[in-house]
């Protein structure tokens, strides 16, 4: 797997590169600014780009804007964004630009190496990985969307794990139920959130976007 890393803190940038290389992954370039990150992505055509949210010059949303621009230049480019805090508006900006091959993790997740690598591989494979803390805050702040009230407690559990990017088998294992039961819950979630099979989007991601969009 070929990876480009964009992080303005030299210590964190090199530490992340060392961690990934120690796992046998190919870090083809590192960058400290959004412009350098975009140049590296254009030059190396990585399998996935890992970008920090807050980068120079203003340290606000440069990383998110670079991620959106990278996917505009390279459609479908898998991008994993790292943030020190839960910033729902930034997550919405990123996910709103398209579904699949996208991840949004808190930086503390990097220290949990197995979880971080699992998320990275899922994103590189075209899946999604949204930090559980982001998902938790979405649920606690989503009362304005009446569709949320339609979900049963078990359906909320299933949707939370879907939002993290877990497949049906992993959800079943986590909740100690059968895959058949998970499949039924997911069908019910899609129906209650008005997500039609005819939709041309990934309904798993669209289910999470309902909450992100409601944050306004």
Summarize the structure in words.
The longest helix is centred in the C-terminal third of the chain and has 14 residues. With 216 residues, the chain is α/β, with parallel strands linked by helices. The protein folds into 2 domains: 129 residues, Rossmann fold (3-Layer(aba) Sandwich); 79 residues, Winged helix-like DNA-binding domain superfamily/Winged helix DNA-binding domain (Arc Repressor Mutant, subunit A). It comes from Streptomyces smaragdinus. This is Oxygen regulatory protein NreC.
Briefly characterize the structure.
With 216 residues, the chain is an alpha/beta fold.
Instruction: Count helical runs.
Output: 10
What's the mean pLDDT score? 83
Strand order of the largest sheet: 2-1-3-4-5-6
State the name of the first-level CATH class of the largest domain: Alpha Beta
Sheet-strand content, in percent, reads 5-15%
**Rough outline:** globular
Number of domains: 2
Q: How many β strands by DSSP?
A: 6
- Biggest sheet details: 6 strands, parallel
